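tool_call: predict_structure(chain=1)
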Amino acid sequence: MGIMRAGWEALTPSWLATFLAVAEHLNYTRAAEALFLTQPAVSRQMQALHRATGVRLVEQLGKSLALTDAGQAFLREAQQLRGDLARAGEVLEGLRGGAAGRLRIGASSTPGLYVLPPALGRFLRERPGAKLEFRLANTLAIEEALLRNELDVGFVGGHLVNTDLEAEPLVGDEVLVYAARTHPLARARRIRPEQLVEQTFITREAGSATRRTFEAWLAGRGLALRHVIELACPEAIKRLVAAGVGVAMSSCQGLPKQGGGFRTLRVPGLEIRRQLLVVRHKDKVLTPLLEEFVNAVRLTARPCSGDGQGHA
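tool_result:
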């Protein structure tokens, strides 16, 4: 069987779509259902793709499918190609006005829960015809969605991990450590970092920018968290902290200035200031509606007061 040329012109969009569906489902029948094709049609397209590339991308292991090493490597490139093709199509749609009413927004927990809602509420009241898709996830997941062109713009609290993404500052932020007012450390005048790591920390998963930032501060002092309870929901973390289960870290945006049953812990040297960011793919052309929304967020976003106690 001859091998076709494996340049970009040999990789048709339909083959890429088929490969991505097979890679997602690892089942020809379910991939066919997702693509509205027959199972034999999916099998034929995968065979054609194997001939075009000259390597086996998927292999049968008993009754299951699995990606080969080549398939894993090609998957990353295929996802990026899909995003590039979608962005090219969006440029044309934008010229025709077809994508003007769509907002595909993603945010990590800090901006998504505490910064964006006021802007979203006001903006959608003024633009009732806009179609909103809003995804809340950790910073790493938002960046990956931007690379796959599943989102148009993201709002995150961490540094970028991919050079295909570019960011602009949105609003100032600070990472604080807090506990219930009844916690033994709550009234301490001075808490050493070594005392902090002895505590049970209730924290987000490893992809959280707030957690990464705080752990980097600890690592700079030769320390690491010892006792960790991981939760995906910041509000659930607050509930456990309020119940006295442990202490936690948070953006100052997420802590009330007064009340709430919490107290910010006094740790000399703990000054973790950062910028929340607006992120997009470097090749993404935002529609006028998206540009207007980003500007609306900038107008409503407020930095913390600088006293370690929430908003100004």
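agent: The chain has three domains: 8-94, 99-170+275-300, 173-274. Proceeding to next step.
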